[in-house]
Amino acid sequence: MNNYVEIAPSPISLIESLRNIGYTIETAIADIIDNSITAEAGQINIRFAWNSGNPWLAIIDDGSGMTKDELIDAMRFGSMNPLEARTIDDLGRFGLGMKTASFSQSRHLTVLSKKGGQIACCEWDLEKLSKTENTGWKLGVLDLVAVRQRYTLNSIYNEFLTNAANGTILFWENIDRIREQVHLSKQESHFNALIDGARKHLELVFHRFLSPDPGKKKVTISINGDELTAFNPFNPRNLATQELEEQQIIIDGETIVVQPYVLPHHNKVSRQEYIQYSGEGGYLHNQGFYVYRNRRLIIKGTWFRLIKKEELNKLIRVRIDIPNSLDHLWKIDIKKSHASPPETIKNELRQVISKIELSGRRVYRQRGTKISTTIKSPVWNRVASGGTISYQINREHPIVIELLNSATAQQKAFFGNLITMFESSFPVDMFFNDIASSPEQVEKPGFSEKELEMLLDIFIQSWSSAGTPENGLSEKLLSTDPFASNQNITRKILKQRGYKSE
Fold this sequence. Notes:
Elements: H1 11-18, H2 25-38, E1 43-49, E2 56-61, H3 68-74, H4 97-103, E3 108-115, E4 118-125, H5 126-131, E5 140-142, H6 144-148, H7 151-160, E6 167-173, H8 177-181, H9 187-205, H10 207-210, E7 220-223, E8 226-227, E9 242-243, E10 247-251, E11 254-262, H11 271-276, H12 283-286, E12 288-293, E13 296-302, E14 316-322, H13 327-330, H14 343-374, E15 380-385, E16 388-393, H15 398-405, H16 409-424, H17 428-437, H18 449-465, H19 470-477, H20 487-496
């Protein structure tokens, strides 16, 4: 016969362990917002203040709210079995998020909720809990009188919930992680920087709620009154973005929707837009799959080790939509910031990759072929020979020929050696590194209008003397570098000289 002994975990010991589960302040705030969205909130306000070294943060929503019994249950650790079926729009999973996310950043959590005009308020205070270790899991329950005595909490209540029938305030105090991270003199600026980073994180993670598809409810999120702007990493509104064919994967009767995108080449967008959509770490780092669970971003910029991140694939981003019913297959973690598909799904994703890789690489290849077909007399030639590629100055370029024709034998030899020196000194490594990491910042030196005008007059005089017909000068100039790369200015000068450039 088996005997059983009930062993309840030590409250403070368990909570102190859960504090180090791996949340950052932005993932913690996002986890709280999940609860607000699940409660059908349309307006979520984040308020924070440094408060002379005693920072606090509040997240307020206009969702359905909770009764006293519902709030007490929500404050329980493991309030819902993760194996239980969730409603289709539920963003939760483990029944731990609100508590673990809050305690990862603070030591005092208060939740005030209002439902049907009735107020309920509870708190977990780790300082009090540590002093009452032997009395078990004693949750603090506050009445309205106690709430009125809490100045900041009461002010937030008066501002947002006094005239509302429903809503919830989640309030963090004793935010001690800031003190652990930086020196006292830098803590306020560090706190502000963390909130700024959280803003960017939330604009990405919840972009499909901030700017929803037709038929979906919009959710407004603001920080200290400043409304967040959705950041869609696929830049679908730009006409140069390629939206490839949607694909579906059926697993256990559930549908996973895969939507690939190829972002625009940097020559197709403004420099500002190109930098904006590069994301933290740049395009190379942010290529890959973006997994959404019920429209909420879980993980971004990964190929799940199916392929390596390569330069030619850096514009490819693939949106994957999964339902919460497949959490067990994707190994969604408590923080909802990590996912890993099983082999059955990986095999399907391998096929998706093979179909879209060509589209991503074609963006770069098309850019390469266009130059050689539009400029008949380039300054540089790309030469492929014996399995190697080199770039050589075009010896047949008109200006090179002009110089050689007027040079002595000794000058021709010197000039030829000079050209060879320039070619052999081409900074391949630096150029590749710059074009790979920040192509939008790589620019070739330009001509001023005066410089281009002087050079153009030399060409016109030389070609006219060589017998080039007047009606062919414009066409020849506009297919010769540097005029081919500066067509607007060249056409303007030709017009001033009386030549037609159409």
